[in-house]
Give the backbone structure.
Amino acid sequence: MRKILLGTTAVVAVGFASAAITPAEAQTAPTVRIGGSIAAYWGYAQQRGRDITTLPTAITGLPTTAIGQALNLERPTAPFVPPGNTTQGSSAAYMSPHDFVVLPAINFNIDGKLANGLAYGGAILLNMNSMEGRNIVQRRASAPRTTVSIDEAWVYIRHPSFGEVRFGDEDGPMGGLMNSGWITGFGTGGVFGAWEQVATRAAQNRTMTAPAGLGDNSKIVYLSPQFFGFDFGLSFSPNLGEGGSTGCPNDVASGWCDSSWAFRGASAAGITAAGGFLGARRNEYQVALRYRGNFEGVGIAATVGYIGSGAARDILNGGATIKTMRGLSVFQVGAQASYAGFTVGANYSTGAFNWFWGNTRVGDRDAQQFSAGITYTAGPITIGGNMVTGLFEGGSRMSVVNGATGATAPLPFGAAGSAMQRRWGWGIGGNYRLAPGLDLIAEYAYHSIREPFVTPAVGSTTNAAGVVQLGGVPGQRASSSVFLLGTRLAF
Amino acid sequence: MRARLPWLFLLLLTLAACGMGREVQRDEYGTDDPRELILRQTGANPRDAGLIIFGVDRSRQDGGAGPGGVAVNAFLWRATLETLSFMPLASADPAGGVIITDWYTPPANPQERFKAQAYILSRQLRSDGVRVQVFRQVWRNGQWVDAPASAATNSELEDRVLARARELRGMVASR
């Protein structure tokens, strides 16, 4: 063990460094490997506040085309009605708590090596899970869940001594590649797991603030070798588009606005429009520094990182652009330790971001999120639990906007009309490995969203100073309790 | 802290430019790929799984079983045997990945003798996949008595094994 982590660095560095200089590598033709996975679960879900609806969010003075977009919304048109009440919220369906869910995926992996030691290749990941992440408002116009879509597609070139570059639709260093402290190695991931595939998406009750929720927007990533236990990563993405869209065909918000630095409706695109990759995030960059070591048999990993971005501007009626959104500015630190089958970890994020890693508006509060978890593995059995809690600006967007000039101003924290979305969730689960690549899973997850300080106003109002204030909603809670039982197979 | 981070990155970037780092493998990064997650969590190797539709499956050469189909790396096994071949072999257990030599007296110094034990610990060709322990005795007062061996000797032998294993792998890959 003494060579695995810290100790290895110096010893192996010499070995690999000399190998890089010595042309001892043999060129090999690329290998193309096809694999995939199938997960099948029985899900039992109990939800509150799950009405499906679309709501207008308007900023007076901005074009009306921004109204009616199903973006950034989490509230039903009618106040929450407790279960058992005969008066259901408008447009609420009566859903069975039971369902079967099947999640297939197909992978293509390409790996080759050049005579000079450069390794190269790529990956294409096809998911057949298109319904997740979409707030289906067009109903029959929507694609079925089993529609094949590309989740990731990227090319890599790696030198044994100089590191690796990945280019394409892939996670970033802080988007899942190098994070520490996110404990998801049990069940399907606990509160970050597959319960979201069972619960109805309405009310936006999703965890979605796990690292991978940052998205696979097209980016270029550099991942360094490891020095004395440390390695680091950098990434840059010009916008939020996967695959690279063509930009807005006109000045109106659409799913192809990824390369536009200003478009009408950008203020309503802080949270990614599900399925359309429409979002205000621009010039995203990620920086991560990771340490891994082994002390007396205790494996340690820790990561500090930063996620930054700009934001698209909105366009006023006269054609002038206005900065209504803030860029991402997120600091994250996490650590985990493993010993004798146990793994414990915790992670903390703070800065300018909203839930779903969305951009906040000017004047919005910063967010904080904390997650922790533990797993234990003994032979073929793994059990574990994790939790996440966070404070976010939320979906009510209670910033004050001057309709004539577009000026914004924040509301005091906790004041009537200001937002404070609180998210809380936890999960426990276990796996039993039947064979390599095959296991049985039982898991329970709970997740809730509350916005207790929001005023009951609905729609925009104008205060005495002539300042237009965005509409609020009654303090409400959306929650999901999901039990999963099923199996996973990967090949 | 924020002010120091850029300097730390600069230092690491400089080290990277000097080519002084250890190569980080794909399975050392996180992923949200469901296939990779399932394979990792169930003890399978993503490099072994799946169907090769083009090319040669080199992962099985890298991580393949040694003689007798045991769970040690074939390159490490062969490299260890060759590296220790200057000493008489007492036993070689391919099932457990253990090689034990008999006592060996260097011709240049008949007053001391050495014995080595090597353990192959991994199916993968990894730097921590082999461990060598050298024992030393010296002739004193008409009998052999134990004496400490240089700690560097173990590491040097391990490095030689790793270097030879790498050569063997390169020879196979070039076929």
Remarks:
- Residues 61-68 of chain B have pLDDT under 50 and may be disordered.
- Chain B touches chain A through 51 residues (CB under 8 Å).
